[in-house]
Amino acid sequence: MVKFLLWCVLLILCWPLALAALVLYPLVWLLLLPFRIVGIAVGGVLELVWALVTLPARLLRGLV
To answer: How distant, in Å, are the alpha carbons of 6, 26, 38, 42, 52 from that of 17?
Structure first.
């Protein structure tokens, strides 16, 4: 809601910039989408590595 209100203020103050932002926002979102997907994949791999590294400690803790 805040983004919409800020866009309305921008529309009142400088309508060409507001219209350019309205047109360019989906394009920028599409350009950044692969980076988000890579970030999710890297995060998953790092969590898997951390789980493998801490597995022996968790197994030993379970035996005690």
So the answer is: 12, 15, 31, 36, 50
Q: What are the residue ranges spanned by the domains of the chain? A: 2-63
Counting DSSP H helices and E strands in the chain, the numbers are 2, 0
For residue range 6-63, what is the model confidence (pLDDT) as tens digits? 989 988 999 899 899 889 999 999 999 999 999 999 999 999 999 999 999 989 988 7
> Which residue is associated with the tokens 């103050």?
13
Tell me the torsion sign for CA atoms 26, 30, 31, 36: positive
> Cβ–Cβ contacts within 10 Å for residue 16, how many?
8
CB 21 within 8 A of CB 9: no
